[in-house]
Structure formats: C-alpha cells, structure tokens
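Take just one protein record:
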Amino acid sequence: MNKSIKTIIALTTLFIIGFLALEGCNKKEALQPKVSDFFVSGCNDIVLHERSENDTIYVTTVDDTKLKISTTNTQFSCGVDTIRPEIQTQEQNISIELLYDDSWADCLCGRHLDIIIENLKLGQTYSVSIKKDERDYYQFEVTFGPDTNLMFVRE
C-alpha cells in the first residue's frame, strides 16, 4: 500500500477517535441535572414585621427524567420582583439557590414556587439542597423513581 494512503487512513482514524471521544464528553455534560422550568407566584399573604417559617414542600415525579419541587409558603420580602434559580450539581448532590434582588420592604409574604429538575436517572438517590439568603433553606434526599411522591413541612 502506498505510504500516503497509510498516512491518510491513520490520520482519519485518529480524527474519528478524537471526535467520538469529544462527543462522549459532550453527552455526559448535557446529562447533568438542570432546572428546566421555574414558577413563582405573587404574594400569598402579607405578614408585617415577622417571619412565618411554616412551608410545605412537595416532591413528585413528572416523567422518567424530571422531578418537581413545589413549595407553598416560602417567605420573601414583599418588595421582591424577580426570583430566579441557580443550580449547581456535583455527582448526586444538587444545590438550588433562589436568587433575588432584595429591595427594602417592611413586610414579608409567602410565595408558591415550582422547580422542575430534569436529566435525573431512575433509581438514583439525590441529595437536594434549596438555599435562600445564602443559607440552607431546606435539604432532603430522594431516590428518584416513577412514583416519587414526598411531602416535607418546614417549621
């Protein structure tokens, strides 16, 4: 066989192997848990000058890869206009920080939140931490399954 044909075959083979290796890395990165949907309600009720900490947290399966976390009374200042989630993952540890611009108000109100996390694996146990005001708000473990249906009360 001609030396230039061998060189072309060798370079093509190396290119294909390199491309497949990079494609495999991209797929692994794409499958990291992420927030696919987020909803926050307006104020449920107003509590002046005091913090009412009772909040019920529901954790349910949406489909084979998605988990929904809903809260009923997460306290924020009445002046907060925009709340957004930021997710960080490390293996089976998921941290969701609720970020917002804290504008001064002399009242607090409870808000309903829905957070949908996707790219989860059935049968895998995840440690989930929800953070607010740079502190842990609520932590729980969940083994993700087709019938996951949990309720927690934060007092």
Notes: Residues 1-30 form one domain. The two ends are 77 Å apart (CA to CA).
